[in-house]
Amino acid sequence: MNTPPRTLIEFLNAARDYLEGKSVDNARGDAEALLGRALGLPRLQIYLQHDRPLKPDEVARYRELLARRGKREPLQLILGTVEFCGVPIAVSPGLLIPRPETEELAMSVIEWAQAQDNAQLRVLDIGTGTGCVAVAIAAQVPRAMVDAADVDFEAVKCAVANAQRNRVADRVCVLRADFLSPRFLASVQPPYDAVVSNPPYVAEADYRTLPPEIREYESKRALVAGDDGLTFYRRMAEVVPALLRPGGFLAVEVAYNQAEPVEKILSGVLGEIGIKNDLSGVPRIVCGVNMEEEPSQLRAS
Questions:
Q1: Where are the extended beta strands (E) located within the chain?
Q2: What is the DSSP annotation of 19-53?
Q3: Do residues 149 and 218 make contact, with C-beta atoms less than 8 angstroms apart?
Q4: Are 68 and 103 in contact (CB under 8 A)?
Q5: What is the mean pLDDT of each run of 10 residues along the chain (301 residues)?
Q6: In 10 A of CB 181, how many CB atoms?
Q7: Number of neighbouring beta carbons within 10 Å of residue 259
Q8: Residue 174, SS3 per DSSP
Q9: 289 Rama sector, left if φ>0, alpha if ψ -120 to 50, beta otherwise
Q10: Which H or E run contains 16?
Q11: 8-71 — its CATH code?
């Protein structure tokens, strides 16, 4: 029989093996993060104190956290927060968990905004979820006034809390509105200097192939967009001329295989349209500027 783990590093190694047996990606990293939470230690201290024994209450806390991760509950939900573009974002069950590729979406707007000379910039974040994109933009662009819209009431509450947490609630206005509804344009106040969105983009047939961390803990409504996953981009093409000022900037996140179809959908309303890769080299962001013309009469559409 193997000797039961006693020291910190022995518990860490056993936790790694346990999570690997549960098919958890990055088992070592997750085991470290959960041990750090159980002990209240940063990662460096875990290794500096590698040979110290764990107290019974520490073992109990660690095992409880590991059991949750072993059931494939997302690490971010267990920890309660995730860092996004340098700001802490609280996460809640049922909402999309902020991901690194979405940081690239936020940064595309932040970089565009920082290059503008406007005294004030008005930004609309469609499908704000936790509010991560809206809060990051407001935090890094002090001139930005951000409207953050979502149809989900829990998302609205979470986004408000994250704006307050990061002290940008005076520049982030969170509102409940359905982007697919004909009344959406009456719910917001265009024209905006920039519009950003990480919309639902999973095709219905692909939903069942998603890992359990997503299917069981994140909202299907926030993930799936029709048979081909392109529903929200078609709606975006309809309303962009009414949402954006002439020359205004649009950036949307897309699935790994959607960049070209979305570029085609938006090409009729955007000039200088382009595709940006995420840090893994995957085409992930489609962006461009509203054509230099007066907004069309779409406010009732």
A1: 81-84, 87-90, 121-126, 144-150, 172-176, 192-197, 244-253, 270-277, 283-290
A2: HHHTT-TTHHHHHHHHHHHHHT--HHHHHHTTTSB
A3: no
A4: no
A5: 77 95 94 94 89 92 96 94 95 90 95 91 97 98 97 95 97 96 94 96 85 85 85 94 94 93 92 88 93 46 33
A6: 12
A7: 19
A8: strand
A9: beta
A10: helix 8-21
A11: 1.10.8
Look up tokens 């940081």; give the residue. 103
Helix axes 8-21, 27-39, angle to 10 degrees: 130
Taking CA atoms, 122 is separated from 172, 182, 212, 244, 293, in Å, by 10, 22, 37, 10, 19
Tokens 């009414």 — which residue? Answer: 242
User: What's the gap between Cα 174 and its chain centre?
Assistant: 16
* CATH 3.40.50.150 is held by the domain 94-290: yes
Please report, as a single letter, which amino acid is at residue 51. D
> What's the pLDDT score for residue 223?
84
| Domain assignments of the chain as residue spans, ordered by start | 8-71, 94-290
Residues 228-278 have pLDDT tens digits of 889 999 999 999 999 999 999 999 999 988 999 999 999 988 888 999 998
How far apart are alpha carbons 265 and 59 in whole angstroms? Answer: 54
If one counts every other C-beta atom within 10 angstroms of the C-beta of residue 295, the result is 17
